[in-house]
Structures are given as structure tokens and as C-alpha cells.
Design a protein that fits this description.
Strand content: under 5%
Oligomer: single chain
Number of strands: 0
Order of helices and strands: HHHHHHHHH
Structural class: mainly alpha
């Protein structure tokens, strides 16, 4: 039992810092051993996350998204110790969510190394659930500063994308290996359905709040890896490659349009308030009146 004299915030910050150190160390190890056949860059093309595992499997470089995620978590581990953040109500839930995400990241690395498809499927599902929980909470309680957005929300947004693609890639791998063909529609048809489902889901995410550009850019990278592998790799499929490229374009346009729409509405309301004859109104009141009482976030 934790003594009453030990603040729960101190426990949280310490746990996040320790987990971050382990995640960063494991990520560095994966990079350092890429030429020995044990790093993520040396994934067997026939493995669960290999590029030849299914028609929607991305190129191995897609999983290097863990590099900016780990870097973001490292920045957050330092950021949470700042005096003004130690008592921040938002860190009470962001910190625990980052800790849970880091634990799942370690599970992902273990599962990826073991090549266990069922484990990857389970980890991907939990990652996606954690990412969607972050999305809900961040829309309700957004970051107050850009620094907080970059260190906390951007890595979690990319973490959501890796979860979605871990889930779809491992599921597609299992179905491909079992020669499943529901309805007799063929592998290409089901691959397109999977891409459409992922694109619709990510577009819904990117149309909330101010666009969640971190999610959009990570998804564009992942879809581009799928497109490149299907157009130039094996198994080759021009249809799937073109569909993935189109999906990447739609995600980028959706997120950019949402960000432009929200920013345009905010600026228009600010001009309306200033033209109403009260140009000395404080900026905080202008932001509140415009329906955007928070600073820009990533």
C-alpha cells in the first residue's frame, strides 16, 4: 500500500519516466541490430508484419513510425516534470494513458520479434482502443499549448495509427494463411474493403476537433507504404496499390480541410468581434466568443 505521504502524481511521473527509458532503449536496440537479422528492418517478408504477408501489408519501413513515437514520449517524460505541469489536471489522465501506451509498445515489440500473429492481433486491438480513448479525451480536454500537443498528443496520435495497421495487417495475415474467402469475392475485393474501412475510420478521426494532423500524416505514411509495396513489391497488385494511394490522398485532404475550416471560422469570428466596435476586447474573450478557447495544437 502506498503511503499517504507519497503523491500519486510523483508515482505517475516516475513510472512514465521509467517506462519511457525502457521503450527508448528497446527502440535503439532494434535499430542497432537491424543488420543482424533481429531488428525490425530485417523482418522476414513472410512474417506476420512482413510485406508479403497479405495484400494490405505495408512495407517494413512503415513500422519505423515507432521512432518518432518513442522520441515524442521521451520529450513528454521530460515535459511532465516541469513545475507548471506537475499539478496540471490534464496530466492526471494523459500521464497514465502514456504509461499504458508504452507498456503496449513493449508488448508490440515482443510480439513482433516472436512473429506470433495472434499476439499481434491482440496487441493491435488494445492499441486501437487506447488510441480511441485518447481521441475522445483530447477532443474534450485539448492541449493548452503547442508544447503539450507535440509531446503528448502527437505521439499518441501516431500510436493510434500503428495500432490500426497492426490490427489490420495481422488479421489479413491470418485470413490469408487460412485461405479464407468469405462470400467468394476474392482477395482483391476484401483488401479493397479493408482499405476503405480503414480510410473511413481515419477520416472520421481527422474530421473531429481541428483535424488531428499527426494521425493524418502517420496514416498517409502507412498507406503510402502499402501502395508502394503493392505496386513494386510482392504480392503485386495494381488495384490495391492505386486504392491505397487514393486513400492516402483522401486522408490528407480531409484533415487539411478540417484544419482550414476551423481556423477560417475562428479568424472570421475574431474579425466580426473587432468590427462590432470593441477592438480592445481581450484575446481570451475573442477566442471564447469564436468557439475556440484553446491555443493551436498539433
Amino acid at each position: 500500500m502506498v503511503p499517504a505521504s507519497v503523491p500519486i502524481g510523483l508515482i505517475r511521473r516516475t513510472a512514465v519516466s521509467a517506462a519511457t527509458a525502457v521503450v527508448v532503449a528497446c527502440t535503439v536496440y532494434m535499430i542497432a541490430t537491424r543488420d543482424t537479422g533481429t531488428g525490425l528492418a530485417a523482418l522476414d517478408p513472410q512474417a506476420v508484419l512482413g510485406s508479403a504477408g497479405s495484400l494490405i501489408a505495408p512495407a517494413a519501413m512503415m513500422w519505423w513510425l515507432w521512432l518518432p513515437i518513442a522520441a515524442g514520449w521521451l520529450a513528454y517524460a521530460l515535459y511532465q516534470w516541469l513545475p507548471q505541469q506537475r499539478e496540471s489536471p490534464r496530466q492526471d489522465w494523459v500521464g497514465w494513458l502514456v504509461l499504458a501506451s508504452e507498456i503496449m509498445a513493449l508488448c508490440w515489440l515482443v510480439a513482433a520479434q516472436s512473429g506470433a500473429a495472434a499476439a499481434m492481433l491482440t496487441v493491435g486491438a488494445v492499441q486501437t482502443a487506447l488510441g480511441l480513448y485518447w481521441l475522445h479525451r483530447s477532443n474534450v480536454s485539448p492541449a493548452a499549448t503547442r508544447a503539450e500537443g507535440f509531446t503528448a498528443d502527437v505521439p499518441l496520435g501516431m500510436f493510434l495509427v500503428t495500432g490500426v495497421f497492426s490490427l489490420t495487417t495481422s488479421l489479413a495475415f491470418l485470413l490469408t494463411r487460412s485461405d479464407a474467402d468469405l462470400g467468394g469475392w476474392g482477395a482483391d475485393a476484401w483488401a479493397v474493403i479493408a482499405l476503405v474501412s480503414v480510410t473511413v475510420g481515419i477520416n472520421i478521426v481527422c474530421m473531429t476537433d481541428r483535424g488531428h494532423l499527426s494521425v493524418a500524416l502517420a496514416a498517409v505514411w502507412a498507406l503510402a507504404c502499402v501502395a508502394g509495396e503493392r505496386l513494386a513489391g510482392a504480392p503485386e497488385s495494381t488495384v490495391i496499390g492505386a486504392a491505397a494511394a487514393a486513400a492516402a490522398f483522401l486522408v490528407l485532404v480531409s484533415a487539411g480541410s478540417r484544419r482550414h475550416q476551423v481556423d477560417h471560422e475562428r479568424r472570421r469570428n475574431e474579425r466580426r468581434i473587432q468590427a462590432s466596435g470593441n477592438p480592445q476586447m481581450p484575446s481570451s474573450a475573442i477566442a471564447a466568443a469564436s468557439g475556440d478557447a484553446r491555443l493551436e495544437q498539433a
